Amino acid sequence: MTSVQELADHRRAILARRDPRQVWISLCAGTGCLACGCKAVGEAFEQALTDRGLPIDKVLKKTGCPGFCEQGPLIVIYPAGTMYVKLKPKDAERIVEQTVVGGEVVTDLLYADASGKRYERIGEVPFYAKQRRNVSRLCGIVGPTSLQDYIAEGGYEAAAKALTTMSPEETVAEITKSGLRGRGGGGFVTGRKWKTCRDAHGEPKYVICNADEGDPGAFMDRALLEANPHSVVEGMVIGSYAVGAHEGFVYVRNEYPLALEMIITATEQARRAGLLGDDIFGTGHRFDIRINRGGGAFVCGESTALMASIEGKVGEPRAKYVHTVEVGLYGKPTTLNNVETWANVPLVIDKGADWFASMGTESSKGTKIFSLVGHVNNTGLIEVPMGITLRDIIFDIGGGGRGGKRVKAVQTGGPSGGALMAIADDSGGNGKTGLLDLPVDFDSLSEAGSMMGSGGMIVMDEDTCMVDVARYFINFLKEESCGKCSPCREGIRNMLAILEGICEGRGRPGDVELLEEMSDTIIDTSLCALGGTAPNPVLSTIRYFRSEYDAHINQRKCPAGVCTALIQFSIDAERCTGCAACTKVCPQSCISGEQKQPHSIDPKKCIKCHACFDVCRYDAVVKA
Amino acid sequence: MSANVDRLIAEHEGGEGGLVGLLQDVQLAEGYLPREALELIAKRLDVPISQLYGLATFYRSFTLQPRGRHTVTCCMGTACHVRGAAQVVRSLERKLGIRAGDTTKDLEFTLETVNCVGCCAVAPVVIIDGEYHANVTAARTDSLVRKYSRQGGGAR
Q: B80 to chain A: which residues are within 8 Å by CB?
């Protein structure tokens, strides 16, 4: 694009070629739906459309994730917005015949809530009703490999606006005024970061998109890159102009092959269209983006480690006495933001800082994407205004605990976040009240002993052992500690040994106090945020679920029935129908019994593999 | 091997950094990072082999050992963990007769774990040769492995 006029003309031409009444299918082809089998469903649609002589390129579009992964494979038929869920290949023909051709709704493929009520349009589904989709509004609408789609929706107009009508200083000021804070975990004010980088001495300057989304349980960045990569490219173009950079990097996790493919395609398209290059919009602004792949190291999500990795070094963090906005990549001023932050930038420029600041709370503006996962009925990606309560998220959007079970905790902020208690009556008598009505924003979460992190929200029900969860996180961090600082390297290892002891029934009185003492030391003496926050899961589980630690240590019992050393499997004779499903899956052949008679497990041979527990349809296998 | 690696090195030359990406490409082409490949890269790009070895052992996605024909990857992310990933891994370990991180003797299967692949909403997730499988249970691992194993292959 050599001018703003050319972009506008191009958009007009695309829209003129399109018929707004054209019925078309949006098939989610994100990684989540791929896992659920959307590839075969897509092929079935192609076949069904071909059979009827309908043009595949006009009627079927493979898009990114609209968020409701639990219901995948799913499609939405536009312009009506009819959503069909949990599709099988055989459903394709019916849908094409009845909905695409006939304009009728196939009722039995619509989403049904727990009460059996069915919803026709995507916007009516309770999962979407309380959401406010801004950053993710085009996910599931635009084809991720179609620059035309993005331009048709007004894409790159924010970049054009910034580059041609605003000075770099004005651009920085607009971002600052919006109150946008980094979505990657730290929550630093984006505009302030940009200003410091702009004012810093040293050339060249760099911008980096951190797509090393390492927090397990968080996948909003993957979904954004897979569904709408051009929004990230556009954000980076604006950012480069604002801080005065000519080179940018996107650092993508190696575990996200599809996201990687999409961002590579998007940058190539943008380059061909002149949206990246030497003279963007004829303004003389020069900017291009290179893609780097990660190597599966969690610590590389930390900014200095990430920069070391781009430089071809081992990804170890360094002390940030001087911030990376002043001395960053190759020792030059560098602005690093994560995927979601970059994707917010075009919106702020396009709609204005005031619009953005009208959403959210006093100190946390705008909307935030969360991945709502774990033991909740409706799992997926949600975008909500900052300040919404956990109750709204878990019960109104998430539909409550899976299978009607009691929700016990919510974990936010990644491995080094914390387990938040969610139900008031679960305090084990320690007087701590539940946090269901906690507003979800940067500061409220910090006060509650957790942190926002990048937006992973893992719901845990009564079947989750909090000591095991703490052990899991500490084990994760032991693996991922880069080993540079002794308190982190050795401290975490020893905390893990204590936690494993507790889980295996070797806990001793005083262990909890020792864990607390070690936590303080690790927090105070580690260099980077990994070590500095590593003990959080232990501290917060002790804070809210001390009684579970005590049960493991004093009674040698795991109340949730998770820690294998402390549980026994048996069969409830009253519930067992003698269907023998469990005997077929038992790898030890240690379940016996007559056909149609109650079975029993030989505890001496049982290896506690859970296979029988998983297959029993009568809840007759019990853990105690 | 060397023709492949030669070509990959040539593609990377000129660009500063990006060593991690080069090693990814070599691993993709060769299945692992053979010593000869690392030596060639060191020579051609004039970087110490110790730096390459450092990278190859620091980053989780690299391996210095040959891998099996099929790679079974279990996601161990938090969402997968709370929905039973540990039992899935244990069950796969039993079926393949190896521990996570190892390769079967007949070089049929490599079993590995990964911290999170971002399919948290449909956890637990197992990836076999790049194909994603959702909502896996310990009981289902049997049929999964069977689908990929040859007659009398690595799986029991």
A: 216
